[in-house]
Amino acid sequence: MGETFHARLFINGEFVESSSGKRFKNINPATEEELGWVEEASKEDVDRAVKAARKALQGPWGKMSIRERIQLVRKVGDLILERLDEFARLETLDTGKPLSLSKQLDIPRAAYNFHFFADYLHSVGTEAYQMDQTQLHYAIRRPVGVVGLINPWNLPLLLLTWKMAPALAMGNTVVAKPAELTPMTATLLAEVIRDAGIPDGVVNVVHGFGPNSAGAFIAEHPGVNAISFTGETTTGRTIMAAASRNLKRLSFELGGKNPNIIFADADLDEVIETTIQSSFSNQGEVCLAGSRIYVERPIYETFLDRLIKRTKELVVGDPFDPKTNVGALISKEHLERVKGYIDIARAEGRIVLGGNEPEHMTRGYYLEPTIVVEVAEQCRVVKEEVFGPVVTVLPFDTEEEVIERANDVEYGLSASVWTSNLKRAHRVAQKLEVGMVWINTWFLRDLRTPFGGMKQSGIGREGGMHSVEFYSELTNVTVKL
Ligand code: NAD
Ligand code: 6OD
Questions:
Q1: Residues in domain Aldehyde dehydrogenase (predicted)?
Q2: pLDDT per residue over 242-290, tens digit each?
Q3: Ligand that lies nearest to the alpha carbon of residue 288, given by its number in the listed order
Q4: pLDDT of 439 strictly over 70
Q5: What is the CA radius of gyration of the chain?
C-alpha cells in the first residue's frame, strides 16, 4: 500500500492517540503485510468520548433544527461518494474483499444509508388519539441520547453507517467502535463527518478489542443509553449482561445459518447465478449467506453439477485484480476456524469441490469455494455458522420435511425460497422461523423494510420506521379538553 495508515481515535472532533499509549498492528489479510497502527482506546478514552457525546447532545446538536441536522446527515453521504475510490481501497485493504465489491456495494450503500435516513426523517410523524370531545393524546419523539455502535468486520462501513445514519438523523450522538480487524474506513468516515460540518462530539470513534477493551467499556458505561450491536451471538450475550447494569436499550443483529430452499419448478439459470452470490460473495462472510442449500430431489443432481461447474469459474485471488471474484478471508485465525469446519465436513460428509487453500496464492488467507454433500443434518457444518466460502447441498423430498429441516437450527435470520408456484412460495415463507424471506432472489434490499432476525439471530429490527423507533424515545402527552 505504500504509506501506512494510522487509525487514531476520534473524540470530540479531534484525532487523538490512546491515553494509555497502547496501540496494535493492522494486517492486510490478502498479503499478510502490515497496513499500519491502530490506537487502542482506554477506559478513560471511552469515558471522554461518552462525555463529549453527552455535551454535544445538550449543546449544538440538540439545539439544531431538524432541517439543518438532516442537511448535514445528507452531506455525509455526498462526501462519501466524492471519496468513493479512497474508501473502497481502504475497505479492500482491511477486509481482503474484492475491490469491485467495495466499489459497487459497500461504499455506495454506506453513502445511501445517510441519504436514505436523511430523506426518511422528513416524513416521520407520531401518533395522536382523540377520545370523544374530551381528551387528546399525542406522542412527542426525541433522541434516546448517547448511542454505542459496536460493529463487525465483514461489511465494516456499510454496517457502521446503517446504524450511524438513523441515529444521527434522529438527533442522537454516538460512540462508534469498528471491529479491531477493520479500523480504516471508520477513521476516514470521522474525517468526512468533520468536513461535513457535524459539530464536535456528535460522532466519536474509538478503536479497540471487545473484552476488557473499547467494546466492553462502551457496553458497561452508565452514560450510554442504547447500543446497536452487530456481530456474533455469543458476543451479544456478553454485551447484554454488561448493558443490563443501567438497562440500556439494545438492538442486536447476530449470526445466521440461512437455508436456500430450491423446488424443482424453480428457474434453474437464475437459481444458479444467485446461489453463487449467496454462497461465495464476500468470501461467504455475510450474515445472510445461504450456507445450507436444500434442493428438491428430482433436480438435485442437475443442480449440483451446474453449481460445481459455475463455482469452478470463480477466480480466487488478489482483491485488487478486477478478475477476482473471491478475495481473502479476514484473518489467519478465522481461516483456521473455517478450515476446522472443512475437516469436520471431510470426516462426516463428502467435499465435492474446494476445501483447500489455493496453491497459487502463497501469502494471504485464501480458501477455495467449498461444496459439501452427503452430510448428516445434525453435523456441525449444517448447524453452525461457518462464515466462510463453505456450503452444504442436500436433497429433500417434501415441503413439510424441508421446512422442518430449515427451522431446525438455533438461528433465524433469513431464508431464500425458489419456486415458480406462488402459493407455495407464500405458504413456505409463513412457516419459516426467520426474520427475512427472499422469494426467487437473495439480499434484495429496500431500506424501509424490517431487517433482523429471530431466535439466536437477534433482538429487534432495523430499517425505516424500525430504526427510527429504536433511536427515539417517546413521551405521550394527554390533554383534557
Ligand atoms: P464479533 O462478535 O466477534 O465482534 C463484533 C464486534 O463486537 C467487534 O467490534 C468486537 O470488538 C466487539 N466485541 C467483541 N467482544 C465484545 C465484548 N465482550 N463487549 C463488547 N464488544 C465486543 O463478530 P465478528 O467476528 O466481528 O463478526 C462476525 C459475526 O457477525 C458473525 O456471527 C455474523 O453473522 C455476524 N453479523 C451479523 C449481521 C446481521 O445483520 N445479523 C451482519 C454482519 C455480521
Ligand atoms: O443490508 C443491510 O442493511 C444489512 N444490515 C446487511 C447485513 C449483512 C450481513 O452481513
A1: 15-477
A2: 999 999 999 999 999 999 999 999 999 999 999 999 999 999 999 999 9
A3: 2
A4: yes
A5: 23
Residue nearest to atom 23 of ligand 1 (CA): 231
Identify the nearest ligand to the CA of 291 by its number.
Answer: 1
Decide if 451 is inside a domain. Answer: no
* CATH code for the domain of 276: 3.40.309.10
Closest CA to ligand 2's atom 9 = 287
Distance 154 CA to ligand 2 centre (A): 10
Segments in 349-393 forming alpha helices (H):
380-383
- Note the pLDDT tens digit of each residue in 199-213: 999 999 999 999 999
Pocket test for ligand 1, best of 177, 230, 329, 386 (most atoms within 8 A of CB): 230
Ligand 1 in reach of 412 Cβ (< 6 A): no
Whether residues 210 and 286 fall in one domain:
no
Same-domain status, 361 and 423? yes
Q: Do residue 281 and residue 421 come from a single domain?
A: yes
Q: Tell whether the model's pLDDT for residue 320 goes beyond 90.
A: yes
How many domains does the chain contain in total?
2
- Answer yes or no: pTM beyond 0.70: yes
Going by pLDDT thresholds of 50, 70 and 90, the confidence category of residue 2 is low
Distance CA 383, CA 303 (A): 22
3 part of a folded domain: no
Which ligand has the nearest atom to the CA of 232?
Answer: 1
Q: Is 433 helix (H, G, I), strand (E, B) or coil?
A: coil
> What proportion of the chain, given as a percentage, has pLDDT over 70?
100
> Quick one: 237 and 370 in the same domain?
no
Q: What is the DSSP string of 67-105?
A: HHHHHHHHHHHHHHHHTHHHHHHHHHHHH---HHHIIII
> Domain with 187 in it: what CATH number?
3.40.605.10
* CA dihedral for 238, 241, 243, 249, sign (positive or negative): positive
Q: Are residues 14 and 146 in the same domain?
A: yes
The protein residue whose alpha carbon is closest to atom 1 in ligand 2 is 445
253 counts as catalytic? yes
Q: To 10 degrees, what angle do helices 156-169 and 107-121 make?
A: 10
Mean pLDDT value of segment 125-137? 95
Which amino acid makes up residue 376?
Answer: A
Statement to judge: residues 155 and 78 lie in one domain = yes
Let me know whether 65 and 196 are in one domain. yes
Cell 479531534, located at residue:
14
Q: Say whether both 265 and 249 belong to one domain.
A: no
Q: Residue 383 sits in which domain range?
A: 259-446
Whole-number pLDDT of residue 3: 74
Q: Which helix (H) or strand (E) holds 54?
A: helix 43-58
